[in-house]
Amino acid sequence: MHILPPAAVTKTAPTRMTGEVWSELIVEPVEDDHRMVVGRVRFAPKSRTAWHSHSRGQFLHVLAGVALMQSRGGEVIEVHAGQTVYTPPGEEHWHGATPDSFMEHLAMIELCDDAANSNTWLELVSDEVYGSSPTRNAVTSAAGS
After folding, report:
1. pLDDT in tens, 25-73
2. Which residues contact 39 (CB under 8 A, 6 or more apart)?
3. Which one of 23, 108, 141, 145 has the fewest beta carbons within 10 angstroms of its own beta carbon?
4. What is the 3-state secondary structure (H, E, C) of 32-58?
5. Domain membership flag for residue 6
6. Nearest 5°: phi and psi at 67?
7. Is residue 89 part of a domain?
8. Is 14 a domain residue?
């Protein structure tokens, strides 16, 4: 067992984000057969990812604030601190902060055999799409259903 060194906080590329977004890689593979990657991502108000997908899906756990999220063709939803969202493999989506508050989440994915093919980044989310009214408290637990 050993303690891993702290990760550097980096500002994300403007080709993948709109606004001010910082990320910190908390977990990355340390053995040849490891696939898990976990990042802490902090969004300033109005900031969001570009449309993107993950070849093995993604879990997002909101740590602070309220997230706005949308799957391509779906409604914008609000996700509150303490809630976790699963996005299936290949589903195009975006996530970000509300217009008036910061948001922080953990992003968890499994890498593909070729790590470069684990994420597919697409076009930036327009202000019109971002500004559409969210569905309040739309994310609920699947437990017991």
Report:
1. 999 888 888 899 999 999 999 999 999 999 999 999 999 999 999 999 9
2. 23, 24, 25, 26, 106, 107
3. 145
4. CCCCEEEEEEEECCCCEECCEEECCCE
5. no
6. -95, 150
7. yes
8. no
